[in-house]
Specification:
The chain is mainly beta. The chain contains no helices and 11 strands.
Length: 124
Amino acid sequence: VQLQASGGGLVQPGGSLRLSCAASGATLNSYAVAWFRQAPGKEREGVSCIASNRGKTYYADSVEGRFTISRDGAKNTVYLQMNNLNTEDTAEYFCAADTGYGLGCSLIRPYDYWGQGTLVTVSS
């Protein structure tokens, strides 16, 4: 599967963005999909993930209640809706996919397939 992340940009604090992770070469519904982010000088952090076939979703504590992960099977795409953004959300965001998580997903374990990053900058 090939993954293409998009939707990043510059937004003011309190604003919203929606990231997209579009897949080709395979049906993304069969994969657990996760969003990770990495800010300059910091380690990569798992943000959210969704299990295969509209399964469970998980969120990092830092984004719980503000971010929502979802799937659109018809578009073979996973989205990350990000609301009430703050400066600490500034990072490059990556999507990743794997078939090895059964009915779950993970924010810390490795994924086999990765998209390129999309940059999110939250600044006034």
